[in-house]
């Protein structure tokens, strides 16, 4: 039998999911010596996965990656089939009868809740929901976010936490020329949020932000970054970590945080507080979120693999 | 903001950076690589890949290397795009040790 991959018998590939992984797979196949036909199946009507619905709307340059995918999509070997959930509308067994191979690039869709008491109260949301909402993802655009309170608490110190906090910290003028969904802009315009707390389980030397993301907090129109200098005190293991050349990103983050800790008193409308060595243990409220109880942590273990241990001491926000 | 390749890349042209770039914005001549600022999305993925620390975010560019912003912008676009890793230039390893890496 003649091997697939020729003009008469192209290698037929089904790709499940239309995010970056799906498009780079397509690109590699088209560039190969084989003649291919690619069918890309996507659950949603439109392609590009989390580049469309995850990457922050005010990071428009990053969103330009879409142009690369759009170019791949124009290739004659490529065919996009939207609105089809593989596993529901079509089975993998069916795909296998019509294609030589199936490539799974369906991302990581599941939400992770904190798993603490009260995390199901109204007012407690996962980042997936909030991010999907402000990016107009069909699954989340009808969600309701109540921004009538003055405090928002963000758990985690990676780039998604930075995105979420920055969207809450910006005013309408900073957001209106971005790709943010109209419905989200309308709600954010009425926001009463004054204090945003970004809570990290470990210390300032272990925060996972890209330095560029923290730097943006120093450049906002109506929000200043705040860091308590006492929270920047390091144990000797963390000092070691920051001296490590391979860890220059963390050093940069630490330097930016240090700069924030010595800023003059903020007189802007909003403040974004970076705070460290705390884990959420309980969310309390009568019918909705009112307070969060945090336990203070200390770090244990060797440099670069320190983990956070609870100290039993708690505070409220 | 943009991302620029600087003189450390000269005569070396390791192309580790190219393999991670999501948008194909590296262009090359016989000497080195340049980033097309209109195409680069400033994702910074290439920066830690470069074995000779030739790539900088504009904000981190040392004073003495500021001219490279304009050099990248002027040279990149007319040159061919580097779409996948290439053989390093002859002498690349020596150049790397010379630079202290
Ligand atoms: C808030 C946020 C911000 C981010 N910011 C950045 C950033 O600034 N820079 C950066 O480099 N990365 C960023 N990322 C990460 C980046 O978006 C992801 O790493 C990338 O999108 C993963 O690509 P993927 O193709 O694996 O999956 P995805 O992009 O998730 O694509 C998977 C696709 O598969 C579809 N799908 C799922 N199940 C099925 C099914 N059964 N049938 C058919 N289709 C299905 C989904 O609808 C989706 O379109 C961010 C992520 C998030 C969440
Ligand atoms: S990895 Fe560095 S030295 Fe190599 S081509 Fe890229 S910029 Fe030049
Ligand atoms: S910053 Fe990103 S887009 Fe720009 S050259 Fe580097 S890898 Fe490519």
Spatial strand arrangement across the major sheet of chain A: 3-2-1-4
CATH architecture assignment of the largest domain in chain A: 3-Layer(bba) Sandwich
Low-pLDDT stretches of chain B are none
Mean pLDDT of chain A: 95
User: Average pLDDT of chain B, to the nearest integer?
Assistant: 91
Share of helix among residues of chain B?
A: 10-25%
Please, how many domains of chain B? 1
Query: Structural class from helices and strands of chain B?
Result: alpha+beta
SSE series of chain B: EHEEEHH
Q: Specify the overall morphology of chain B.
A: globular
> Which strand order spans the largest sheet of chain B, edge to edge or round the barrel?
1-4
CATH class of the largest domain in chain A: Alpha Beta
Q: How far do the termini of chain B sit from each other?
A: 27 Å
Major pleated sheet of chain B: 2 strands, antiparallel
Structural class of chain A: alpha/beta
Reported for the largest beta sheet of chain A, the result is:
4 strands, parallel
Q: Assembly type of the shown chains?
A: heterodimer
């Amino acid at each position: 039998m003649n091997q697939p991959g020729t003009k008469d018998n192209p290698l037929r590939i089904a790709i499940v999911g239309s995010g970056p992984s799906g498009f780079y797979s397509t690109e590699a196949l088209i560039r190969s010596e084989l003649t291919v036909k690619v069918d890309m199946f996507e659950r949603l009507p439109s392609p590009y996965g989390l580049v469309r619905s995850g990457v922050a709307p005010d990071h428009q340059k990053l969103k330009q990656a879409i142009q690369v995918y759009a170019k791949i999509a124009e290739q004659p070997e490529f065919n996009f089939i939207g609105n089809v959930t593989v596993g529901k509308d079509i089975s993998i067994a069916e795909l296998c009868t019509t294609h030589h191979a199936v490539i799974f690039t369906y991302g990581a869709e599941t939400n992770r809740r904190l798993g603490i008491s009260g995390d199901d109260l109204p007012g407690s949301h996962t980042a997936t929901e909030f991010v999907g909402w402000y990016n107009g993802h069909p699954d989340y655009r009808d969600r309701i976010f109540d921004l009538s309170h003055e405090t928002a608490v963000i758990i985690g110190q990676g780039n998604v936490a930075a995105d979420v906090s920055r969207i809450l910290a910006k005013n309408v003028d900073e957001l209106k020329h971005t790709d943010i969904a109209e419905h989200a802009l309308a709600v954010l315009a009425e926001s009463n949020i004054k204090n945003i707390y970004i809570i990290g389980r470990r210390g300032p030397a272990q925060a996972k932000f890209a330095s560029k993301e923290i730097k943006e907090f120093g450049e906002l129109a109506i929000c200043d970054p705040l860091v308590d200098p006492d929270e920047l005190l390091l144990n000797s293991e963390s000092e070691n970590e920051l001296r490590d050349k391979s860890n220059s990103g963390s050093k940069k983050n630490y330097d930016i945080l240090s700069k924030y800790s010595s800023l003059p008193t903020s007189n802007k409308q909003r403040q974004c507080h970076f705070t460290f060595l705390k884990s959420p243990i309980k969310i309390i409220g009568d019918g909705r979120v009112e307070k969060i109880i945090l336990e203070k942590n200390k770090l244990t273990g060797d440099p670069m693999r320190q983990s956070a241990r609870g100290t039993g001491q708690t505070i409220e926000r | 903001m943009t991302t620029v390749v600087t003189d450390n890349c000269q005569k070396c042209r390791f192309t580790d950076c190219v393999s991670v770039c999501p948008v194909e914005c590296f262009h090359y001549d016989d000497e080195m690589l340049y980033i097309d600022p209109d195409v680069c999305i400033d994702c910074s993925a290439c920066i830690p890949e470069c074995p000779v620390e030739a790539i900088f975010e504009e904000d981190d560019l040392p004073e003495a290397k500021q001219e490279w912003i304009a050099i990248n912008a002027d040279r990149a676009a007319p040159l061919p795009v580097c779409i996948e890793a290439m053989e390093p230039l002859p002498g690349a390893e020596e150049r790397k040790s010379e630079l202290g890496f």
